Amino acid sequence: MFTGFFFVLREEGVPVSLTEWMTFMEALNKGLAGASLHGFYRLARAVLVKSETHYDRFDLAFSRYFLGIETPPELAERVAKWLEKALPPLEVDPRQRRPFVSWNLEEMRRALEERLVRQKEEHHGGRYWIGTGGTSPFGHSGYHPAGLRIGGESVNRSAVKVAAERRYRDFRTDETLSTRQFELALRKLRELSQNVDAPKEELDVEGTIDATCRKGGRLELVWARPRKNVIKLALMMDSGGSMTPYSRLCSRLFQAASKVRHFKDIKFYYFHNCIYQTLFLDPFCRANASVSTEEVLRSLGQDYRLIIVGDASMAPSELLMVGGAIDWTAYNEEPGLAWLQRLAAHFHRAVWLNPIPKACWSTAEGRDTISLIGQVFPMFELTVEGLEQAVKALKTRR
Amino acid sequence: MKKTFDHTADYLVSDELRDAVNIAIALGRPLLIKGEPGTGKTMLAKAIADSLGLRLIVWNIKSTTKAQEGLYVYDTVQRLYDSQFGDHDVSDIRQYIKLGKLGEAFVSDEQVVLLIDEIDKADLEFPNDLLWELDVMNFYIPETKETIQARHRPIVVITSNAEKELPDAFLRRCIFHYIAFPDEEMMARIVRVHFPDLEKNLLAEALKAFYWLRSIGGLQKKPSTSELLDWIQALVVGGVPYQRISAEIPFLGVLLKKNQDFELVLRRLQSGGAQKAPPAFGANRRGW
Known about the structure:
The complex is a heterodimer. By secondary structure, chain A is an alpha/beta fold. Chain A has 14 helices and 16 strands. About 13% of the residues of chain A have low confidence. Helices cover 43% and strands 15% of the residues of chain B. Chain B is built from 14 helices and nine strands. In chain B, helix 9 packs across helix 10. In chain B, 30% of the residues are buried. Chains A and B meet through helix 2, helix 3, strand 5 and helix 7 of A and helix 1, helix 4, helix 8 and strand 9 of B.
């Protein structure tokens, strides 16, 4: 019964398992859905969907299966559908960008509403209708000096307002990696030892037997310290402009690292493109929240494991030249590469995680600097698999 | 269905949530409840117990809680000490076995409601360690060679604040419901329960400002129901005229707990704030 619905759900990306489907069938047999479609909807959602992030997909699948064709509900929803199949982002030569044209939000909203009423299908790459990759003021991944971005990613950064709504859309995460997977990978980074200042709270059976025998059979309890992870971790993250597309991925790694809570100590630092004499304490890289890299090297022992996260993509001068730092206020007396080598020499175990997929390292825009940095630090891609390899590298002495 | 759950005198429940509870009871599956803080997750279990006239057993989970503690604890040290002084009969291990909350729910003479509160606080593997026990509703105590079998399948309610993601195998066995944040109308009813004599204009303005705050994108911690209630208390005590509320949002510190959020909202307030009509296509405003 309703087996088609099962497949529609999976097509829409709701991860329904057979176990859950059988439970659902059992519930239907017990008559828990009542006689209404509404009851069916609630029953199916309660049994088959296990995360609010999938409510939206469930709604889509449900309407697709039971209504066959989409009834025109909210206009925004329809538009969101058109925009799902997007053209590649339109890259605009900065010289061709027209100067700021005056615009009026009210007027634009009116125009959008009017266009929503008249538009019946997808349009991509055009200059008038709502769509992607074009120069119409509405849609995304396109360019219009005073455009209204609807969904999608900021590519040319000219969208004045963002508009897209669906009831559970906010919860949706189209991400393949979850914090949980990162956490599990980071868990493997441990080195247990009893030599820590923890209270003695575990019964030492061997010691107890020994002490009791020495007392001629009178019980003498011996306590030992529980074994604890002694690994200390320093995370340094590039928060420069080219990292913006990866910011969510990186923040998930950071969240996972701070959540795992099993490290003895964990330090977070930020930098812009490359590490020079200063490291920052927050992602905004402001001078009033910074420490000198020298100071960090002094205060952190060599046993700290170092993980640097960055796309390693920059102008070669930033890495190789004196004064090559991207921020012109941050004049560096030594080239970035020297600083990186200094870090690598100090921290015996260090890795570089790169959010750019490994397959693109030799073709990406920053291929030169990626390969230069790859000679200083072992480089892994920022995926669950890459992180696992990195953790392995951090456990073994170079 | 023998027993069905419905509203109680002091707990308002949406139809969707009511259905989810009844589905979980009928199928004998644990009910997993997620939702923002202040949406009444923990209260739900109490409401179910009240509504069905059952006893409620609460198992509060902390970061150090182990699954085993919910089943039973074997107090070896006590037994060793007792054996030293010889004033107890230590051959009966059973007196050193103390049942945990789950064990207590299993041996109860009548059906109970078991609340496993904030399961995401515990270790990552915690939910997996309970899979078997929640599935077949029994566990084995090797020390006494006893199997504890649930006499009546307890109604299990599990709450999560989504601090950690839960393992798939665990999720597959649960009935899931996400309690959405109450809308303005519902919130007005909730506030009325706490402040029956509140002035109408003050309530309307406070709610307007509150939902405007929540609509700001990029807040690290959105204010929740309990903060709203504290804030209204502050407004009443401070005698703030309602006309000033949405323009200035006095006592903002009661609503926002993070420094960055505070600054963000102050910037928004200076540029017009809650008095401007909300944009028609959602409040995800973004600049250049």
